[in-house]
Amino acid sequence: MTRLNGKPLRILQITDCHLGRDADESLLGLTTVDTLVDVLERAVEVEDSFDLVLCSGDISNDGTTGSYDRFIQIVRQHLPAVPLAWLPGNHDDPASMRAIRSAAPRADYLSIGGWNVILLNSRVPFEERGELPQSELKRLERLLESDPLSPTMIFLHHQLVPVGSAWIDQYVVSNAADFFAITDRFDNVRAVSWGHVHQEFYMVRNGVDLIATPSTCVQFKPLSDDFMVDSTMPGYRTYELQANGVYTTHVNRVTERAYSIDLASEGY
Description:
single chain, Purple Acid Phosphatase, chain A, domain 2, six-stranded mixed beta sheet, five-stranded mixed beta sheet
């Protein structure tokens, strides 16, 4: 995949949609289909066109094939011609994701607009925490070695560093040091982005931006040691990537919606 017109590459990142087998699946008071639709409508309304839609995990809340079919249908309704990529989160079932035969999203690696985009699987079966298996670390190293010059972004589901909330930081990628031991060798890695934490986060480590993107449904309150739901609206993140390796990113959120969020919940 390449762009030949010289325009910046634009990526829409959505994450943690938590769709279910049924259209009325809800999470802490929010019907997740409705909030995903609201997020995509907002993106289409206020943004320029996109070159890639990327979902960084927890697409499903129950791992059913029907939930992944529903996700693809909803995205295609709003962005019918835009390439789609995804990776699994802790709530996802990779086997069900692979079972999608028609117009299946990319799930590994893309070279687009002069940039490389690497998708990693940090899911540990039947656990909340993240870990990158040796096969993924070797694949990452191989891809970076094969092209050490093109600017590169890496996406996964779990956070690689603590975001400041003790209850969810116990699920950080357990072997993040192995990941950084690889990426620290390559100056072309510009940013690493994840979902999972249902909130915005940004820091710089060794010149590489580390980024978290808000969920398309429930938001978790930042810097809270105990589980706490935030009243902040669902959102998405966009990236505008220049051919010279410079990029910008911003978060936008749904507005003018009255959601019944269960702010008193002590877990999910």
